[in-house]
Amino acid sequence: MPERKLSPVLKWAGGKTQLLEHIAENMPPRYNRYFEPFVGGGAVFFGLSPARASVNDSNAPLMNLYAQLKGSVERVIEGVRALDASPMNKEAYYAARERYNAKLAARELDAECAALLIWINKRCYNGLYRVNRKGRFNVPYNHAKTNPKSIDESNLRAISAYFRKADVTMTCLDFERACDGVSAGDFVYFDSPYVPESDTASFTDYTMDGFSHDDHERLAALFRRLDRLGAKVMLSNNDVPPVRALYAGYRIQSLEVRRMINCHGNKRTGREVLILNY
Length: 278
Ligand SMILES: C[S@@+](CC[C@H](N)C(=O)[O-])C[C@H]1O[C@@H](n2cnc3c(N)ncnc32)[C@H](O)[C@@H]1O
Hints:
By secondary structure, this protein is α/β, with parallel strands linked by helices.
């Protein structure tokens, strides 16, 4: 549907670029509306670029970025260009992070906030998005040797055109509320924060609230409700016993994936599951 293939704008923990092909091959051949309640960096969503979609994430600055790309793409590009024009060093990174946090505290979710998010994401440690209990972004500088390219302007403009032409609804809600509009025949892809592989290897701090075992139980109950409703549902997570227990009775595929070493001790590969109700 878009004029060119779209790519994610941000590097995002748990990003699904490496599984995109497998996910696409395992999608139902036909569905009405595409729902992605934990869209994050949108590797799957942008890769598929569905004509009718409802995407959601509880991270407000992230959903602001997508809203700004839809309505004010040239202002976002100008904002990133201005940040790119300053010399790149540790001081510049922490000054931008301070400015970003001041905007979050003042609830100024605008084009400048979106530009800061893009620019910081390319320069923070591992492209992580992590906030403290007060909601302040606290990821340190990555000390990269080279100054990275912040944006592919033509990708941003193509995303903007796609958002304006396609029927795409964007919300910033808890995942359960984001599924209120799902009907029989719709397709829902869930990629929540993962159940940790071990007690020491958890990363669930994308938002102030984290993601607890109760949230995973709430998600499994929602999966079953949507199944009964007649929606087609796919979910990814770590291949660990608690996940297999939560989704017992559904079709489970196990896949080997490459890992970012820093987030998973010394293991270079791990296993993930894809759970399907069809
Ligand atoms: C594993 S990431 C999704 C990654 C995404 N598939 C990608 O390719 O980038 C999980 C996302 O869930 C969001 N999230 C966490 N708790 C949530 C909640 N209760 N409701 C909705 N979204 C939530 C986080 O902000 C994060 O972006």
